[in-house]
Amino acid sequence: MTIRFRQSILLTAALASAMILTACDRSQQTVQAPPPPPVSVLVTAFEPAPLVSELPGRTTPYMVAELRPQVTGIVQKRLFTEGSTVVAGQVLYQIDPSTYRAAYDSAAANKARADANLYNARLKADRYAELVGIEAVSRQANDDADAALKQAEADVASARAALDKAHIDLNFTQVKSPISGHIGRSSVTPGALVTANQAAALATVQQLDPIYVDLTQSSAELQRLRRDVERGALSQDESNNIPVQLLLEDGSQYEMNGKLAFSEVSVDPGTGSVTLRASFPNPKGTLLPGMYVRARLEQGQTGQAILLPHAAVNHDPRGNSVVMVVDAENKVASRPVQVRGVQGDKWIVVGGLAAGEQVIVEGLQKVRAGQTVQAQPFTAPYAPNGAATPQAVASAAANPASH
To answer: What's the pLDDT band for 342 if we cut at 50, 70, 90?
Structure first.
């Protein structure tokens, strides 16, 4: 009994010691809880900002001329180099003019014969007009002379028209460029038979300086812009002199700015979009017809915008823009926002935030909604001349501006 009693006492003591050690460990763990993670926040403030839209588009020639023959004949010469630059009025093809020159000479001879007949008819009519006064000829003869004069005048007019037609046809044997521009490949060679007003073009001339860019914008976006203007949330330039910047297929910016030329007044029923046309100078021929580009144009000015760095704006699974804000109790909350374009390296936020709120810019990877954090002021990295920082460029590439 004594041995069993001692064993019970030792077992009880061991259990008590284990419980004391566990309590100590829990106490130490409670004391060693990690502090709230630090995050960099930006205090929001309203400021004016341009509303810049980025629209897809394609380049189209300023003018296009498809060369087709106006007369039938054999092509004698091709007087240009394919892919070269031609000027308005330059002869590009020579069609065999022999038959048309003969027709012109025949028309000229008919015109000369009609002139001679007119001269004779006029002399006779004048002579009969004098003789009828002294009754040397009958009135019927005088009337016949007047009618012959009018017939001769009509014959001269008809011969003149035939001569003009023959001269036009003879000139059409030289196929000339109606505009200045770049000419493409030729569809015919010397010796080919061409016909008047044929369906196939001999060649195509395109004027590429300046050049047009046809942009598409959804009708819903256009209606929203008009409503914003009507309620005063957005102001527009009365002069309609809207500059346009162009982004090429490789992402680089075109060196020259263009301007908005006009906007369609009807909506494409197939796409639900409206076409806007911009004009760009193209002295070096950098822009070629059919290139896919993106254009940035300022469609208004808003005075109630909040500018946030690219790193502050993320997207939910549905593609909506969201930011993380820190409330007065230093707790994190997710907030959906409305983004309307970019300005430099910042998003233009026009809804979802109020002035004075704290938006997390750095440290988003370490926090989640409802978590307590330690907010610190955000300091933007230095970028000379207002250029976008490498961090902003990387963020913009990860979050394309498709809002």
So the answer is: confident
- Which residue spans within 104-242 are E strands per DSSP? 174-176, 181-183, 193-194, 203-218
191 burial level (CB within 10 Å; 0-12, 13-18, 19+): exposed
Kindly state the average pLDDT of the residues 162-167: 96
Our separate counts of H helices and E strands in the chain read 5, 20
Residue spans of the domains in the chain: they are 47-61+207-398, 69-93+178-200, 97-172
For the record, the structure tokens of 268 come out as 């494409």
Selected from 2.40.30.170, 3.30.1540.10, 3.20.20.70, 3.40.50.920, the CATH number assigned to the domain covering 47-61+207-398 reads: 2.40.30.170
What's residue 239's pLDDT?
53
pLDDT in tens, 232-291: 554 555 555 678 889 998 889 999 998 888 777 778 788 888 888 889 999 998 999 999
